Amino acid sequence: MAYKKYKWGLIIRVAILLIWLIGLAFAINKLLLNKPNISLVIIITTPIVVLIVFSVKNLLKYTTKRFYEMDDFFESTKYKDFSRWYPEKIGAEDIRQLHKGFNNVNKTIISLNKEKEAQHLYLKKILELIDTGIIAFNMESGTVLWVNEAFKNTLSLPSFKSIHFVEKRQPDLFNAIFKTKYTKNSNIDISVNNNTLKVLISSAVFFVNEEKFKLVVLQNIDDTLNRTESEAWKKLLSVMTHEIMNSIAPISSLADTLQDKVQASLKDPLETINMNDLDAGIESIKKRSEGLLRFAKTYRSLNKVTKLNLSSVLVDDLFDNIKLLMQASLESKNIELLFKSNSPELQIEIDRYLIEQVLINLILNAVEACKNNSNPKILITAEKNINGHNVIQISDNGAGIPKNIIDNVFVPFFSTKKNGSAGQFHLKN
User: Angle between the 93-129 and 2-33 helix axes, to the nearest 10 degrees?
Assistant: First the structure.
């Protein structure tokens, strides 16, 4: 619509200009045929010339005004200024229509920007809430494009704007996280606050406006295992509650029935009790009670770890006791059991009963692992590591833990054996 009105306005102005030019040419031609003097020619043609000048000026103003409006709009677009409002109720009709089109474009772009900003905030909030650490940074300058709280919390880092902040303070962590390429999901061990942390990490490179960025995603595996362990305990307690209630309910019901019969017999001597029924009921209560006791005995270890009885124990004394308990059994199976300590005076603060049970369980696991070896050996060592921790470690020359179950070895009661339960393979004090 605006284009049509502009076209007709332009045609009319060009037509008027042509009329004045034709009139000027006709007047000059008539005057020259009559051979008048110069003054008369000037007097007669001057008004026509004025009209021509006015028409040319009007035509230029008419055309340049539209181009000026369009240039102004494009300039605003260039600098992303979409807040400007063009008047729609003043000026020529085609100008008003042009302004209306400009305003519609601005409103559409503003609406799209708001939607884009809302989506960005929504995505940012989601990434902030997840417990997976994410960071994106410029590979040339090191400037951080975006990082979430989970990333900083996992690595115990404060807010930072450049990855070089980490490089200056923790170069080993910098090389492991930011410099190494991880084309696939990889399990790595990193040192955070003098503690070893196991994380799952992957990275990818992408481009934004010809700038090269790197995206790093990492997941704290230890936290995941802790959550899995917690869920396992909840499931275990749920199973225990269900089984106990299933055993108690029929016992209580049968006891009530037998009690009612006994009381009825006491009140009315003529009311006799069937002794076979009474004997069968008591036998049922006995069997269910024994079943409940066996079930409780199966999980008796649950209440043994509520309090640790810590004491200072010489490692050599601990090893001598374990050797006394296990040596004869292992010799009968031709398995060599070795103990090694780097210091005879090495002492550790432990609950001796629990640690002995753990070591016995691990030795039995090692026996199972190396039973097919022609020269089976089990080695138990104790030493103080570079971090000042006392470490007891058990190793064997058996098959080892399969990769498909290694992530589950710390889950309570996980086992690949029908009647077994998993134990730790590395103890640290």
Answer: 150
